[in-house]
Amino acid sequence: MYTTTSHIDKIIEKLALIKSALELHGKNGTLSLHKNSELIMMHVLTLAYNYQLEFLGKDSRFPGVDLGSQTDGIAIQVTSRNDNDKVNDAIEKFLKNNLQKTFPRMIVLMMNTRIAKYPLKPFIDPTFQFDTAKDIIDFNDLVQKIKTLMPIQIQLIAEYLEKEMPGAGLAIEDDKKYLINTEADKAKRKLDYYFHSAVTIEFTGAGLSAAKIYRWLNDYFNDPHKRFYYLTVLSEHFRNRTGGSGEVVFEIPLNDESAVNYAKHTILKISQDKIQIEFATYYSNREHNTNLQDELGPMLVILLALPALKLPAQAGIKISYDYRTNGKIMFYNMNAILSADTHMQIFYIDKHTSVQEDFKNIGDEELLELLQEIADTFVNEPLPHQSNQPFMAFDRNGQLLTLNHLRSRIQPALREINE
Per the confidence metrics, is the pTM higher than 0.70? Predict the structure, then answer.
């Protein structure tokens, strides 16, 4: 009984934090948090009501609808507003687009406290039914529903909210600053856990256009086999959108749904003085192994190719490397691109981690320094009756061999450029 009560308390705490954060963002005119909240609510409603919901916020076929289930015949508008105009406007838009033919029932979920009465305007479809007592739900209604569930269902909701909003929970990740929206990807593939790496290589004081950076990379990796193995995303096949003048974007979208428990997503963006590479994996189990080939490989080959770019003497190089995960990512030493002696121990990360470095030049020592910092973000999982070091033992000699091997595999392209 105590466990169930504590789970209910945790759910109330997290919902209250969402409500407060949305109110603050709304007053300051920022709406990015709202989209992430819609995705969180999709999972909570699925667990609480056993709906088979999908995120429809970007589906042009269903304007004004955020979540929906054709199986259950329901559409849900998620809003932080609680005024009568919002309800009437939502219903009017729903009927105007004939969505009642796909979703016989419409629900308005208010991430706020509902008011006493909602007088409704006459419907343009007189056969449509909307009960303000049942079809308008606020967080208080949601909590009351959750209290009627089985203890295991309540626990699952509490654990999900804690996973998405760890700690105090106010810092819900804003995917807007990243190229990959992990919440949208998770919702699309119905996978609960992710591991997202985001690399930014910025050339300070260089004055490099996106076109110059692109031509450098395109010429350097002109061998299709080298490009396929070391920088797959840099391909005309994957260039699917641009920002007009000044940037170009390559994207390997989410793989098809034949891989039921696994998905991945890659984006490369080239803009003025900047390269951004992001890679995200999604999976069904909390624990996931990685040898960091996909996460570190593209960054390393780009940095090893820098001599061919011939940066001006005054230029600097700023590198930032972000890991984000809501699971437990364990380092796997087999064929790893990061050289470390794990001594049969388990090293992992389970939160947002960031590494930033500024360099004047990028040589072996600078690369070793950067990789040492990345290795240090993994911590040891203590085992009973064993005395182990808390951090991985970075193998500088082994890493240097790995870098030289990688350099030898891609460097023939440099001779071709010089010729």
Answer: no
